[in-house]
Amino acid sequence: MENQLPKRDKKLLLTLFLAMFKLGAFTFGGGYAIVPMMQKEYVEKRHWINENEMIDIVAISQSVPGAIAVNASIFIGYRLAGVPGALLSTLGASLPSLIILAIISLFYQAFIANTYVAAAMQGIRACVVAMMISAVIKLGKPALVDWLCWVLALVTCVAVLWLDINAIYLILVGGVVGFIAGMVRARRGKKAEGEAKK
Prior knowledge:
Elements: H1 7-25, H2 34-45, H3 51-63, H4 68-106, H5 108-113, H6 115-143, H7 147-161, H8 167-197
């Protein structure tokens, strides 16, 4: 039995794998460093997803167990090409790290003691911070749509930076507050419609 994907889908899967492989190969500084690169690749360059979808993907990826880069690659892959897309996207994001770590592990002692490597990593970390700030600004514009969103963002920032509260609790509180606010708005909308009909 032949169960082959159409050529267009095969091309999309290959493009998805290569795009995620490229991101995985050139992302340094942890999982959050891949977010601005995903945003640039999938939202700005390829227009595969919009900014609101990207924000949702980042929020969900942060909320579930696992590395944010892998989680985001699963969601993006599934969103674009179903289960095959999720599998290939995850493989593309993970494979560069596996290859690089396998090579480094063979020469770990020489690598870790090399002053040039340490200096290069310092420069890379500085660039990663700038990229994450850029992602926050770009993703923040469509996310902070009203005063409640601004208040939640500021309270969360204070809680993370100064109160050292676990991020998962803040995400859960944000979800609950957003849900309640949505319910209140829906009731007000229905009430306004009812008064308008009278």
